[in-house]
Amino acid sequence: MKRWPVLLLLAAVGANAQELATEVRATEAAPGIYMLEGVNGFSSNIGLMVGEEHVLLIDDGMAPITDSLVAKVRELSGRPVDFIVNTHAHGDHVGSNAALAAAGATIFAHDNLRAALAADPEPAGGPGGLPVVTFTDEVTFHANGHRAVVFHVAAAHTDGDAVIHFPEQNVIDASDLFFNDLFPFIDLDSGGTVAGYIAGQKRIISMADDDTVIIPGHGPLANRQDLQVALDMLEDSLARVKKLVDEGKSLDDILQINPLADYHEQWNWGFITTERMTRTLHRSLTDG
Q: What HEC string does the chain produce?
C-alpha cells in the first residue's frame, strides 16, 4: 500500500495540518448506530455502534481527529472503544489506529489490509496501529443484542475492502465503496478495480431495501436510491469511455472529447476531478 493516494488527496483539497478536521459531529443512522464526521476540515466518515456491552468503531479518521473522536464516543456511549474495524488501508480511515489501540481497542481488518499496513505502518500511526485480528472472507460481531456482519469485497476500492452490515438495524456501512454525490476514488495501484467496485456496489444494493440507511465513506448519510444513482453514474461513465476506446481514440483524444462532461457539475471534486475519473476509467479498460 502506497501512502501517495492520501498525500495527493490532501494536496487536492488544499488540506494542511490546520485544515484537517479536529472536531466530530454525530448523525444517528439507527438506534445505537451513528455516522461520525469532521465538521471543521477534511475527514472521512466513521461508523459507530454503541450499547451496554461493547463499542464498535468502523474506521477512525486521521490523527488530528483522535481526541475529538474519543470524546464523542464517550459522550454517546459512556465507554471507551472496544473494537475497531478498518475498512481499507488509506490513511484517512486508519489514522487514529495506534492511539486507540494504545488505549485498549482491538483492531480487526481483512488480511490484505494488514499486509498493506505492515509494509508501511505510518498511515496507521506506526506499528502499534496494525490490526491484530484478520479475516479472509467474513467475520461477525455479536454485541449489544445485535449482529455486525463484516465481509470482504474483492478488488474494489482497494484489495482489502470491508463492508459492515447491521441486519437488525437495517444499516450498511459501505465506507469507500460509496462516495455520495462525488466521483469515487478507485485505487488501481492498491488492488482496486472498476469492475470490482461496480460489483461491490451491486452487492450492497442487493442487500438493501427502501428503508436501509447507508453510511458512505465520504458525503452525507444515504439510502439505497442514493447508491443506485452513484452506480448508474459509474456504469454509464465507464460505457462512455469504453465506446471511445473501442473506436480507437487515444487518451488525449478522450480527454479532449470529455465524455463525462454531463456529470461534472454534480460529481467533480478536488481529489477526483472529472479528468481524473476519466483517466481512471481509461486505465481500467486498457491496462493489461
A: CCCHHHHHHHHHCCCCCCCECCCEEEEEEECCEEEEEECCCECCCEEEECCCCCCEEECCCCHHHHHHHHHHHHHHHCCCCCEEECCCCCHHHHCCHHHHHHCCCEEEEEHHHHHHHHHCCHHHCCHHHCCCEEECCEEEEEECCEEEEEEEECCCCCCCEEEEEECCCCEEEEEEEEECCCCCCCCHHHCCCHHHHHHHHHHHHHHCCCCCEEEEEECCCEEHHHHHHHHHHHHHHHHHHHHHHHCCCCHHHHHHHCCCHHHHHHHCCCCCCHHHHHHHHHHHHHCC
Q: What is the pLDDT of residues 267-285, one digit of tens each?
A: 999 999 999 999 999 999 9
Domain spans in the chain, listed from the N-terminal domain onward: 4-224
Task: Give the sheet arrangement for strand 213-218, strand by strand.
Answer: 138-143, 146-153, 161-166, 171-179, 213-218, 222-223
Note the pTM of the prediction, 2 decimals: 0.94
Please name the amino acid found at residue 111: D
CATH architecture of 4-224: 4-Layer Sandwich (3.60)
